[in-house]
Amino acid sequence: MRSDTFLKHCVLAVFLLINLQGFSQTDKREELEERRQELQQEIRRINSLRTSNLQKEKSILTEVEDLDQQIRTTENLIRITNQQANLLTREINTNQNKIGELRKELENLKEDYAKMIQKSYKSKSQQSRLMFLLSAENFLQAYKRLQYMKQYANYRQQQGEEIQQRAAELQQLNESLAEQKKTKDKLIVQNRQTRAELEKNKKSQQVLISSIRKKEGQFAAQLRQKQQEINAIDRDIERIIAESIAANNKEEGSVSRETFKLTPEAKALAADFEKNKGSLPWPVRSGVLSMRFGNQPHPVVKSITINSNGVRIDTEKDGKAKAIFGGTVSEVQAVKGANKAVMVRHGDYISIYNNLDKIFVRKGEKVSVGQDLGEVATSNSTGKTTLHFLLYQNSTKLNPEHWIYKM
């Protein structure tokens, strides 16, 4: 009995381990597939934005930056797809090994069970089975022996059926994975073809970069000028925030220009906003991140460092800026060099939507998450429709990439 109990526990442990590994692999596969689809959507957005801008007169730097963004995104897509294919290959191999082990175990169980049935048949004329029962010291022991033989036979049969069912499940899973592997192989081929097209773009990019290298000083001067413009816009935003804090606090009896004096309702709203860190929606329906937060080297002119207090998101023409959370419009102001800005307060947090052409809200208005705040302006020089998005807590700038879902 002890040996059979031990065997039953071992089989249970093996099945449990198989299930846990299966869940883990499935989660990983789903995660990779989700990421692959996201990258495909991003590439489609980049292609759409580039196509809509083809007729626009663009600087060499802008062309190189656009190509660089598209190349990097597609390379990420190829990398993710290869990871999916490799994962599927490992799963197929693992399941084939499991099937082989289970089949071997099933054959052994069938053989043992057949021997047991054969012995039982041979001994049905009151021989070994009867002797086993009659050799019992008392009736209770004989009854227990009879029950044991029945349980053992049932257990063997049940175990064989369970393993056979498991082998069938694994075989089915293996066939499914093989089919998925074929799909992924097709995707890899498609990605290689896309990469070949991108290599052509890379060659064009290298030609452009070479021309930039010849006039690096000139382009560096342009980038420094661009950075000065960004700095001026950021300073203007910070001035508006300080004035907004001061105006709010004056009503509340405080003279601080650094932090909002919060009502209990505003404190609750700020706490709710903070709970949603990392899961807030994008401030546009569809967009591509074209400038990240903080200090970053320029992708072409490496000697130049760009700094941004927020992020920039390229979106479709006539794209709308959307509120990332419920709150109150605290400011609607023109910003020199960046059209108009809408600021929405969420307690002591402020989300800022800059470079808007048309405004759909007014100061003091309560807005809900996802509500259209304004239409993003399109540049006459580059043809790009770019939202400048910033996030502050009081007068402290925050990295939007830490707050917006998968930014």
Radius of gyration: 34 Å
**CA-CA gap between termini:** 59 Å
Multimerization status: single chain
> What is the approximate shape?
elongated
Query: How many separate helices?
Result: 6
Describe the structure.
The chain has 407 residues and is α+β, with helices and mostly antiparallel strands. It folds into two domains: 2-214, no CATH class; 216-402, Glucose Permease (Domain IIA) (Distorted Sandwich), CATH 2.70.70. It has helices at residues 2-52, 60-122, 128-134, 139-214, 216-252, 264-275; strands at residues 287-291, 294-297, 305-308, 311-315, 320-322, 327-334, 340-346, 349-359, 366-367, 372-376, 385-393, 396-398. Strands 1, 4, 5, 6, 7, 8, 9, 10, 11 and 12 form a ten-stranded antiparallel β-sheet that branches. A two-stranded antiparallel sheet has the order 2-3. Strand 11 and strand 12 (396-398) form a beta hairpin. Helix 1 (2-52) packs antiparallel against helix 2 and helix 2 packs antiparallel against helix 4 (139-214).
Describe the secondary structure blueprint for this structure.
Blueprint: H1 2-52, H2 60-122, H3 128-134, H4 139-214, H5 216-252, H6 264-275, E1 287-291, E2 294-297, E3 305-308, E4 311-315, E5 320-322, E6 327-334, E7 340-346, E8 349-359, E9 366-367, E10 372-376, E11 385-393, E12 396-398
Antiparallel strand pairs: 1-4, 2-3, 4-11, 5-10, 6-7, 6-9, 7-8, 8-10, 8-11, 11-12
Helix pairs in contact: 1-2, 2-4
